Amino acid sequence: MGKFFGNLHLVLVTGLVLAIVVMLKYGASAPVDANSILRWLHIFFGIVWIGLLYYLNFVQVPTMPAIPAEQKGAITGHIAPKVFFFFRYGALLTVLTGLSIAFINGYGHQALTFSGEGNVDLIGLGMWLALIMAFNVWFIIWPAQKKILGIVEATAEEKAAAAPRALYASRTNTLLSLPMLYAMVSANLG
């Protein structure tokens, strides 16, 4: 049992196999097609992205000042780079699967231009908020974090300037995540 749960890749593959079994078993009442697979992946990647956003804002960032200096290297050198890898690719894959769903279902352009009505405009709002958040992840937070974590060379002044930039963009994403999640969940576009 310990070997199984100690191997993340084995657990993920087993979870995928189990999901396929569920899909096959309930395919008659919940058809498996490109749309349903994309929705499933969209939710999975969204959980990864927003889960890590909340972990960073609710746990890691507020806890860092209390961590003794000699222990911070474990976080900045090992944990944070891994967190930011999954954070930024979770953002990218959430956006790509979300846009794919919208365009496959024929409402992508209407949603992005707010030329639909009601639920289409609501999903459009969620899409724009997610795009802003993904932009923040890739073009503000990640470049700043590369300096802060020492992944790229930066002076002490550059690191000091990068920290509030990363924090403000991350807190902006936390703020935007609440209306974005509401818009995504409430639009109900079949």
From TrEMBL:
Pfam families named among the record's database cross-references: Urate_ox_N
Residues covered by the Urate oxidase N-terminal domain: 112-187
Coiled-coil boundaries: none
Keywords (A to Z) from UniProt: Membrane, Transmembrane, Transmembrane helix
UniProt key word Membrane: yes
Spans through the membrane: 7-28, 40-58, 79-102, 122-141
Name of the molecule in the record: Uncharacterized protein DUF989
Organism: Novosphingobium kunmingense
